[in-house]
Each structure stands twice: as structure tokens, then as C-alpha cells.
């Protein structure tokens, strides 16, 4: 599977309990044999971070900060994304001894990021408000500009329930497979499919309300 | 395949996560059903919309901020340690004052740590329980696994549970007709030792019955709460994802039931699990 970050998606080792709806899905299986033959190029960097080496911390940051920031922008909005990204990396460096290597580092990092974003959302206790600088589309107004579509998309994402928004963004932006989504969010693959269906249905309704036309 | 079945499989189809045989069946339906085909086209359009967005650029100074935070985190403990070692030894007359100040500081720090740890526990508890509640309607077993992954738990019978928590668990009472008790666990939550029972209902759904010594509004986050008087008890109701959660005080502990279908089922459950005293 081609991904934005160029990471392979076939080294997903941990299994989970299969449900009836899981059985319809492909690619949710694991490939532990191929995993055991692979070496993680980050292993040395992570090991050095666990020893508290500053240069290794910067290397790890350079490898992942764009991905973390992008995810934070989509999950908590651009106004809070820097603060949350900072909190994510502080938490990573302070707790990296707890990373055992039993899952991929990216999975662990996604989980830390999602948890920080959920805490930020919860602590602000905000019901998302739409602050569009553009009016919804009308017959007289030009539509389809990049700025308008970006604002409409973010406004619609902000109005999705946090768990649906998280699932949708991890799938569409980070291009996680269903197996990776299940592991990162600690749910079954059947739940992944049903939440993505709900997220897309609701997002389409919200986008339409905001004037988006496919 | 009917439309409802196809709509359930549209996301896996769109994400190329559907098995080949099902993929062909769904595609066949889509060729003949404009309504379902339109939903699939919407999924594709939304993917295009999000993929058109440029990646946001992280602020250039972000790493410096992180470094600075890390530095102050490390140096705070280092400086405090130096002062403790050398400061008061140079001026014996100040010894008493330094000791007093240190005592105040230690008590202050202990208080702050205590408050921070409590707050941290609440945050984690809220996030963990939020996941449990969201997962429960679709996969009660998976939800239970999540809970047990975060908090130590033991599979017990009701008598063992009673010995540990010092009250008779409500699920030891006769359940309503058609209900079966599947498992009882003791779960060590941050608040207290909880009795967590999983039951199957005659409607094929599952219920989680939690008994806990301390009221736990933090479990439900910012979900709207309704008050009701049900079967002579003042209960709080939380509705979401088509399910009902009820929590109320009963003698020595609080009872929380998750996965209730409606108020009629709640009344029936309360009559059996927590009957009014004679």
C-alpha cells in the first residue's frame, strides 16, 4: 500500500480477536514471520533516546514532527496544534523507556498523539463552533477555491465527534490500514469499518451544510 | 445483497480492505443501484478533498521550545539538589529558617504532586472509560478487554467478590427472566475495587453491571446527564449511541449499568438487582 510517509504497512504483528464483521475484511491479518526478519532502522535512535541522548531526541523529532503536527492540525485545529505537538514530544521523551518495541514505534507515537489530542479536546470542553470566513456557497459566489475548501473541510472535521474524527483522519490523512487503526485505537477491525462508515456519512452531511459540492 | 448490507461494506470497499468475493458482490450491486453508487462516489470525493489539502508546515521554533521545556524539566531537579547540599551549611544561624522553608516547600510540592497525580488519574480514567463506553455497543468483549488492559482484574465468582468488597454484589440476586450472568471480575480502578459483571439479555444484547464504592461522574465525561426517579431510586441517565447508561446509589455502593435498551428494561433490572427494602 502506498502511503504519504513511505512506510510499509505489512509489518503489523499484534493480533486481536476476530469478530464476525472482521471476517469480511482483508489485510487485517498479521505477518509475524516477515516482521521477525525485518530490522527497524529507528531502533538505534530509539535506544539512544531511552538513554537520554539529546542528539537522538532531535533525530527522532526530525523523523516524525511533520506527521505529528499534521495529525494535530486535523484533530485539534491549527490554533492548538503547536502546543499539542510540543506536549506529544515531551511525553514521548519522558516516557520512551516504556516503549517496549512489541508494536511499531509509529503505532505507539500515533497513540500518544491521539491521547494528547483527546485530552486537549476534553480539557477545552468545547463543542466545535464553525467560524467560517466565507459564506456557504451560493449561485453567485465563486466556489471550489483551495482556501474555501480547506476551511470548509476543517470546520466539518471540527464538528465530528472526536472518536469519528480520529478514525477518519488516521485513515484518510495518515493512510493507516484497518489493522493499524485497530491496534492504534484498541478496537476491533469491525468497529473500524463501522466508525468509518458513520464518520463519512456524517462528514458528507456536514460538508453539504457548509456549502461543499462534490 | 440489499442496500443496507452494501452500505455497511462501502468503507471497506473504498479503502480496499474488502475480500475479493465480497468486493465483486458489492460492485455488482453498485452497477445496478444509483443510490448506493452515489454514496460511494461521495466517499471518493471526500478522499479527493482531503488529499488536495497541502500539508501544514510546523512552526520552525517548535524544536527550540521542546528543548527549552526539556532543559527546565531536568535543571529544576538539579538546582534544587545543589541548594539542598550546600546552602544552609554556610550560615548556621539561618539553619532553622532554611529547615522551616524547606519543610514548607516539601509540603507544597507534595501537595502539588498529589493534586497533579489525582488530576492525571482523572484524565486517564476519563479517556479510558470513554473508549470503553464507545466500544461497548459494538463489541462488549473488546470493551471489557480494554478496561482490563488498563486496570488489574481477576475473574471471580460472586462469593469471592463479596469477600473482597464487603458487600453482596447485586448480580448475586436473581436476574430477570431470560438474563444470564456471563462473568464477574474484580477490577482495581483508581477510585476503588469494582465488581464488574457481564450479562446477556433475552434480546441478544450484553450488559455491564459495575459496582463501586465511590460515585464516578468522571466516567461519563461531558455527555449530557438526565436525572430520573426510577423504582424509588434517584438515578442519573446518560444516552448515547442508541444505548442507555444508568448510575445510582444503593446502600454501601453505587451501581452503574451499561448497555440498557430503554427505561422499561432499566426498571425491570432495578427491581431485580436492587429491590426496595421491605
Task: Map the helices and strands.
The complex is a heterodimer of chains A (214) and B (278).
Chain A lengths: L31 H6 L5 H8 L3 H23 L1 H18 L9 H20 L21 H14 L2 H11 L5 H8 L3 H21 L5
Helix pairs in contact in A: 2-3, 3-4, 3-5, 4-5, 5-8, 7-9, 8-9
Chain B lengths: L2 H6 L1 H5 L5 H13 L1 H19 L9 H25 L8 H41 L4 H11 L2 E4 L1 H8 L14 E9 L4 E8 L5 E7 L12 E6 L2 E8 L2 E8 L2 E8 L2 H11 L5
Antiparallel strand pairs in B: 1-2, 2-3, 3-4, 4-8, 5-6, 6-7, 7-8
Helix pairs in contact in B: 3-4, 6-7
Can you describe this structure?
The complex is a heterodimer of chains A (214) and B (278). Chain A is built from 9 helices and no strands. Chain A is mainly α and 214 residues long. In chain A, helix 2 (43-50) crosses helix 3 (54-76), helix 3 (54-76) runs antiparallel to helix 4 (78-95) and helix 5 (105-124) packs across helix 8. Chain A is globular and about 50 Å long. By secondary structure, chain B is α+β, with helices and mostly antiparallel strands. Chain B has helices spanning 3-8, 10-14, 20-32, 34-52, 62-86, 95-135, 140-150, 158-165, 263-273, and strands at 153-156, 180-188, 193-200, 206-212, 225-230, 233-240, 243-250, 253-260. Chain B has an 8-stranded antiparallel sheet with strand order 1-2-3-4-8-7-6-5. In chain B, helix 3 (20-32) packs across helix 4 (34-52). Chain B is flat and about 85 Å long. Mean pLDDT of chain B is 83; it is low at 77-90. The interface between A and B is large, with 60 and 53 residues.
Brief descriptors of the model:
heterodimer; A: mainly alpha; globular; B: 278 residues; alpha+beta; eight-stranded antiparallel β-sheet; 9 helices; 50% helix
Roughly what percent helix of chain B?
A: 40-55%
The low-confidence parts of chain A are 5-23, 27-39, 126-144
Low-confidence stretches of chain B: 77-90
SSE string of chain A, helix = H, strand = E? Answer: HHHHHHHHH
Q: Helix/strand-derived class of chain A? A: mainly alpha
> Based on CA inertia axes, which overall geometry of chain A fits?
globular
Q: Globular, elongated, flat, extended or rod-shaped: what is the shape of chain B?
A: flat
The number of helical runs of chain B is: 9
Task: Give a quick account of the main beta sheet of chain B: strands, pairing sense, barrel closure.
Answer: 8 strands, antiparallel
Rg calculated over all Cα atoms of chain A: 19 Å
Element-level helix/strand string of chain B? HHHHHHHEHEEEEEEEH
